[in-house]
Design a protein that fits this description.
Blueprint lengths: L2 E3 L5 H11 L9 H16 L3 E6 L2 E9 L4 E7 L8 H12 L6 E6 L7 H9 L3 E8 L2 E8 L15 H10 L2 E7 L5 E7 L1 E3 L4 E6 L4 H8 L2 E7 L12 E14 L2 H15 L3 H10 L5 E16 L2
Parallel strand pairs: 4-5
Antiparallel strand pairs: 1-2, 2-3, 3-4, 5-7, 6-7, 8-9, 8-12, 10-11, 11-14, 12-13, 13-14
Length: about 300
């Protein structure tokens, strides 16, 4: 079984399948809506964004995808050909065509809708996770997201182990947090951090307003870079520096007890003065906001400056 590009010569068989399943897709109820859908399919065919599975001079499965929007737009399998891995073949072909270095999305039925049982199971098999609840054609839907993959390290011989990455994050006091700032410009700011080995997350403290908070409210995807102080080999002028780059999602911590826990561990990273710690917790804590970075991808490398 092979998924192939559809073309205008396939439109009659393509729409024959769509008419078989029209009741399962809100927005295809009328003849006019079907005619509009046919025009859409032809446009997708011209852009090589329509794939299908052909069997016995007919079409048993169809899928439309958008490279520009990086999404699955429409997927259907003939009722009498379901449970034959046709949808899987279509998805594998579509994912090969889409950009895996960006999130891929699809809109489908919600969890409490029995129509969603099969499609949601299919998408989750490929790694899609739940996103925003939406309404399309007056029908409640939900966006599912296949998170982007991260580029492999190009100079892999310089890669350091996860244990070495943990050591850098634990021992070094600060790094640079990079976000999407005002006007779409990158915005990087130096921050103190505390790395919690137990949950694998990084924690920060900051003021309760400012450019940084505005940026992460608009987009919670961030990068954080930490470097150690480096070392020199005997007789060598150049430093050897370990660096760790993290990608993940960041959010505000709203629980007061967790905020106190984070601030306590941050302070202990810089000072063992218990009197100072208690003073800061008493007088500065009400003015502090903490941030929690959940790591989705981490790389580390050792670079010689020469």
């Amino acid at each position: 079984m092979q998924a192939v590009y559809g073309n205008k010569n396939d439109i009659q068989n393509w729409m024959k399948l769509v008419r078989l399943v029209r009741d399962e897709f809100p927005g295809l109820e009328t003849e006019e809506s079907l005619q509009d859908h046919e025009k859409t399919v032809l446009r997708f065919m011209e852009k090589m964004q329509a794939i299908c599975v052909k069997e016995d001079d007919g079409i048993s499965g169809v899928l439309l995808f958008s490279r520009n929007r990086n999404m699955i737009c429409f997927l259907a399998v003939a009722p009498d050909r379901r449970r034959n891995h046709i949808a899987t073949a279509l998805m594998e072909k579509a994912l090969d065509e889409l950009d895996r270095y960006r999130d891929i999305t699809v809109s489908t039925f919600r969890e409490d809708d029995e129509k969603g049982n099969a499609p949601r199971a299919l998408y989750k098999k490929f790694g899609f996770v739940e996103g925003d609840l939406t309404v399309e054609f007056g029908y409640p839907n939900q966006v599912l997201i296949l998170p982007r993959i991260f580029r492999p390290m190009r100079r892999f011989k310089q890669m350091i182990s996860e244990e070495e990455c943990d050591k850098v994050l634990t021992e070094q006091p600060r790094g640079v947090l990079s976000m999407i700032g005002d006007g779409g410009y990158p915005y990087g700011v130096p921050l103190d951090h505390w790395y919690c080995k137990e949950d694998g997350k990084l924690y920060f403290h900051c003021a309760k307003e400012g450019h940084k908070l505005d940026a992460i409210t608009d987009c919670d995807k961030v990068s954080y870079c930490v470097m150690d102080e480096g070392f020199r080999k005997e007789g060598d002028w150049a430093l050897n520096i370990r660096s760790v780059v993290l990608f993940g999602r960041i959010k505000q911590v709203t629980d007061l007890e967790k905020t106190k826990w984070i601030c306590t561990n941050l302070l202990k990273k810089f000072s063992d003065d218990e009197e100072y710690l208690q003073h800061e917790l008493k007088h500065a804590l009400p003015r502090v906001l903490c941030l929690e970075l959940t790591v989705e991808h981490m790389t580390g490398k050792l670079v010689n400056e020469s």
